[in-house]
Amino acid sequence: MDGIEPRNVGFFEFLSDEEQAELAEVAERVVFEPGEVLIEEGGEPASLFVLTSGQVEVNKRVPGSGKRLLAVLEATDGRAVVGERGLLDDSEASATVRAKGRVEAVKVPRERFRAMIHEGRPAAYKLAYRIARILAERLARLDEEVVGVTREIERRGETDLDAFRDKLVTEWTI
Amino acid sequence: MQEAYLEGLSLFEDLTYEEKAELGALLEPASFGIGEDILEEDGLEGYLYVLTSGAVEVYKEVFPGRRQLLATIEAPAVVGEMGLVTRCPAVATVTAKEPVEAQRLPYEAFLKKLDAGSEAAYKVVYEIGRTLAERMARTDERVASVVAQLEDTEPDRRDFDVFRDKLIREWSF
């Protein structure tokens, strides 16, 4: 159990006391020193980390221009959860998440989460539901960003931007 | 009987016979003529549709007044599943390309099942989550590819930075 009290972590407040206790059986409290990696791009699908203190940097390798900083996330932010996609998906992690300073987090290991799903444990299903909602909302917003960028490219009428517009439109995922 | 409509669809494949029967009891028949909209972009939808025969086209209004065809989907298939997990407006329009026969699952009835702790409903939500996660992974890669092209083409153009930053704002990893 490792002394985890999910009820003290705001992200898990949608779970009942009983379900939080269920999750506590598999969750682990983890600490990362500055520079340590929580999630490695191209590595195994991620486990879920809920940051309880500190900051992390999210970087992605972009062909031709090396590593690119996507975001700095703080435990106190509304978005203090990383690795949520990896909990449900089987594809490799798409970015590297690294501790900027000392970071404390609650980890829900992917394999143990999957085992809970296999056993039909309500806490795991409710967590999956919460993650599905996060992904659906984020995907909807990303779609809107793509629409906005595509329209802006169209409005400018610059021929050198046509290739980007076409790529954005033709590879839409629904 | 109605549970037979759920056979062969990945969204329901992990459900037991009894669980399929539980959700099958919520299904209502629906028919659509050619050109009729089943889901409307930006509309607040109320149903997941299990398409049992026919074909649909998926459109998005990428440019004002111009619908872009994104995909053609043939029965058996499911559309409108995203609305089961979030009440966001539909992200695309789904129009009958051929006469379509379907069974619709009302969101409200499904959400009541979820509230009551139905394992059948949770299994469906888990599968929707997995589908969304895969879709997000593909979208991330598509955006990464465009961002890379933007940076390769003219790295000093500051207006490209705006595009790039907009696209990566909602990254999921």
Structural class of chain A: alpha+beta
Annotation field: number of helices of chain B: 5
**How many beta-strand runs of chain A?**
8
Strand order of the biggest β-sheet of chain B: 1-8-3-6
- Low-pLDDT residue intervals, each spanning 5 or more residues of chain B: none
N/C terminus separation of chain B: 41 Å
Q: Structural class, from helix and strand content of chain B?
A: alpha+beta
- How many whole angstroms does the radius of gyration of chain B measure? 19 Å
Question: How would you summarize this macromolecular structure in one to three sentences?
Answer:
Chain A is α+β, with helices and mostly antiparallel strands.
Report on the structure:
The complex is a heterodimer of chains A (174) and B (173). Chain A has a four-stranded antiparallel beta sheet. In chain A, strands 2-7-4-5 form a four-stranded antiparallel beta sheet, with no helix packed on it. Chain A is an alpha+beta fold and 174 residues long. The mean pLDDT of chain A is 84. Chain A is built from five helices and eight strands; from the N terminus they run αββββββαββααα. Chain A is globular. In chain B, α3 (107-115) crosses α4 and α4 runs antiparallel to α5. The termini of chain B are far apart. Chains A and B meet through β4, β5, α2, α4 and α5 of A and β4, β5, α4 and α5 of B.
How is the secondary structure organized here?
The complex is a heterodimer of chains A (174) and B (173).
Chain A: H1 17-24, E1 28-32, E2 37-39, E3 48-53, E4 55-62, E5 66-74, E6 81-82, H2 84-88, E7 96-99, E8 103-108, H3 110-118, H4 122-156, H5 162-170
Antiparallel strand pairs in A: 1-8, 2-7, 3-6, 3-8, 4-5, 4-7
Chain B: H1 17-24, E1 28-32, E2 37-39, E3 47-53, E4 55-63, E5 66-74, E6 77-79, H2 82-85, E7 93-96, E8 100-106, H3 107-115, H4 119-153, H5 158-168
Antiparallel strand pairs in B: 1-8, 2-7, 3-6, 3-8, 4-5, 4-7
Helix pairs in contact in B: 3-4, 4-5
